[in-house]
Amino acid sequence: MCGEMRRRKQLLSREECIRILQEGTSGVLALSGRDAYPYAVPLSYVYVQDKIFFHCAKAGYKLEAIERNPKASFCVIGQDQIMPEEYTTYFRSVIAFGKMRILTDEAEKRNAIEKLAERYTPYNEKGRLQEIEREYNRLCMLELEIEQMTGKEAIELVKAKQINPN
Question: In what order do the strands lie in the sheet with 51-57?
């Protein structure tokens, strides 16, 4: 996986990393593609207790890559504020590393899609469940079990927290 972060002052706590994963709406899943080329694809997701769940079709390049090599990383950018006068950005981001798994157990698959759907449509349970039923047989659910997670923020945000800790 990844080594120690060189700029330790910019390291986010585990709690801050989890908050970014809980608040983010999309991220980039990186897999090992054909001929050793990296394959990175933007996806919506849901984070639940050290696991990240995704949905996809039952066939395709993403599934081929996972079957070839289940090791993956997933990156979410929680903040990216351009500061042109400072020639920088004020950013916060998280990268999770782990192994992907295609959910084949029906109870696991159902639980994962319900959590994902609830995350993006929390206010319409009836419609959400109808959509799940309509698409369920064409749906594949994926799980990334997090083995390592790192988060980093711009040094300017670190300094701002030191000045104003609240």
Answer: 38-43, 27-32, 71-83, 88-102, 139-153, 51-57, 46-48
Length of the chain measured in residues:
166
Rounded distance between C-alpha atoms, residue 75 and residue 29, angstroms: 7
Give the CA count within 13 Å in the CB-facing half-sphere of 121. 12
75-89 pLDDT tens trace? 999 988 888 888 888
The residue among 147, 151, 146 whose CA lies nearest residue 9 is 151
Q: Residues 91, 79: contact at Cβ < 8 Å?
A: yes
**What is the value of pTM for the model shown?**
0.89
C-beta of residue 132 within 8 angstroms of C-beta of residue 86: no
